[in-house]
Amino acid sequence: MSAKYKRVKQADLALPAPLRWLTRAFSSITLAVILLCLVALYGVLGSVPVYFLAIGGAWLVILVVLVGAGCWLGVKFANDEQRSGGGRLVVGGLIFLAGIASATVACLVSVSAISRTEFFTEHKATVIYRLPAIEMNETEFFSWWPMQLLLVLFVVNMIWATVRRIEFKFVNLGVLTVHTGIVTVAVGSILYGQLKLEGDMFIVRSDLPGGQPVAHFYDRVKPAVFVGVDRAPMMQFPLINELPRYNDYKIGELDITLHDRQGFAERLGEDLRLTIPGFIAYGEFERVWVEAPEAESSNTTVGPAITVARGERDTVGDGRRETLPAARPAQRLLETESWAIEYLHSPNEQRVADLLTEAPRGVGGAPHLLFIEVPDQNHREVRAIAPGDTFDVESTGYRIAVEEIGPYGLPFVTEGYEGATDTHARLGITGEHIQIQRYALHRYPERSQDFVDGTRGDPDPGIRTVYLDQTKIQYHLMTGAPAIPGVTVNEDGSEVFPDAEDRLWVLLRVAGIKPVLSPLAEQKLPLVDPDKANAWLHVVERLERAVPAQRPVVTPKLLRDPKLEGTYEHALLPVRVEYDLRDENFEKTGETFSRIIWLRQMPYLEQRGGEMIPQTVNIPGYGSVQIAFGRQRRALPFAVAMTDFTMTPYAGSDIPRDFESDLLVYPVDERGRPDGTPERFSPRLNNPAIVRMAGAPLQLAKVKLSQAGWDPGDPDTPPAMKQLRDEQGRLVNQQRFTILGVGNNVGIRIVFVGSVLIALGIPWAFYIKPWLIKRKARRFTAAIVEQNGTTDDR
Prior knowledge:
By secondary structure, the protein is of the alpha+beta class. Strand 26 and strand 27 (588-600) form a beta hairpin. The longest helix has 46 residues, at 748-793. The protein starts with a helix and ends with a helix. The relative contact order is 0.12.
């Protein structure tokens, strides 16, 4: 204890008790050690999964209680003077060993108990800040108020203890420097945590539509919901600490309201209510078909559809269910190597008749059949065909050469057939006046086509051909009373099946067996499955007005990218939209419009496509509401425009070596619009641009713009333009946009200065100070010796 602190403690006696206790506590080194231990413990809490924290905590309690009790009892028994010396030591040792053994058993039991606990099983690899009660990322956790409070208390403790305990002398310069450095580092860390900015901005090239200067950026981690009505600008509602990150919540488990936020009622009205009732932390949208409401616009429906599922004869399996819409050729088919199932609604008589075509005796088991009809000569025949076959169509004058049989090749691109595939027979047909090449399609005969001298057209009506693929079992499920040739009605005019319109029919074609058409009474049919003997297909649902929809599905943990968890990049957000309906007099009707929509996060509102688009809800009597889930948009004290973007390749190749954005940075007025003379910057990879703005808030006074992303190139760019280079060999004028990282480093220099002070003070405190003290002691000793010697001479 220094003489200074002795004087200070003596002076503290005049203070009231609570104040004296407080000042003594903040003057103690013990408090500093405790605070540092708490900071270290905070770091452990943020780094070690809760499963291991629970085990470690249990072991600590067990060791303290059982081993401590064993030690205490063992020592006490060993020091009992009423017992013999040898016996005391033996029994004391046994008690100590019993404490260790019981502690070991208790530790093993605790691990087993914790491992069987549902909570710890579910969160075995989860750190504390990912738990439902906290829900924040690592940066937010280590910038959270408990950590900030510990650092503030430590800074106060260091300053107060330094002032009260250390003499301000030259010899103590090292200790004072170290203490000052520690305080400086702590203050810099607090500033850095509170004022740190991280985000990015999306900028379209200025010579393209939408290429205006941008005066905002999107925060890297903080989410927000954007709402707009009709074509008005979208309004932002930040969700800074309310929205979960890592855990899923079913509809109804959350109740985050947006309509009570500042400015909502003024801009969007009091009758509109938006609520976030749930959350999926990591998921995908699954395409599904649902029954459209009666009021749904007809252009959104595709007509009837059926949903099928595989299973056994009497049970439906838990596997994936498939919906087959009749009006979508690419999606109305379910196919394996053994069988194919196609759903048709109200097929015409000609199509049903073609599918019921019987093969001649002896060739019914052939994998490929060709039905040929020459209408003018009333000629019909069915042949088994194979590639390379050439034959005359009896006395009709036509000759057919089978050139190819197999998959059609590329998927269709014709509107309505996009993505559909088929098998085909390519036929060379010659006659008295024609010579054509025909592509006869099996499943979509209406898409068959003729080529005459390289020109494509519809099939020649003089000869009709139908290719029947029998390489697998063909099931054709039908609804809407298919027109069955010859058996549609009885002789008296009555229907064979009175409820034919509502029945589900199946037309079965199997090589070597006569085609069968009959009602599907039990809504199920057997399948040929080489891996399962009792395989059946069940029709589990019929939709009269099918409409495409998206169903949110949670992604299994094993399929997730750990780096993307908690970033909202794969998060799905439900928003409940409610509105109190009003009549023509704008009086409330008592009815409420309500709908839940699901949103995927849009990194930038300016970049839209696929699932990354705002969802629109049309509310009767109100208008169109656009809602988007994105990241918090923050204003900048300047606006950035991109005039060009260049890529520098490695010599002799197109492999990127460097990217460079040519930017113009404008000052902005009070409304955030460009106002003034711009300054030119050119950030490149690993070479950011530093933008300084006088008069801007401390957080935005110095902003770093770094090259974070870029457009891979416009797919519509002509090939010649894709290789356009400048004098330096750089590829230019290909990128439509750039992505700039936005950040700052407020407080980082303070941390650096503090680190330098610590580095300078430590050698002084450990080496120079002892040397100064020893030198002073030697001088003092020499002076005493000299003084004693002079006295003796006298």
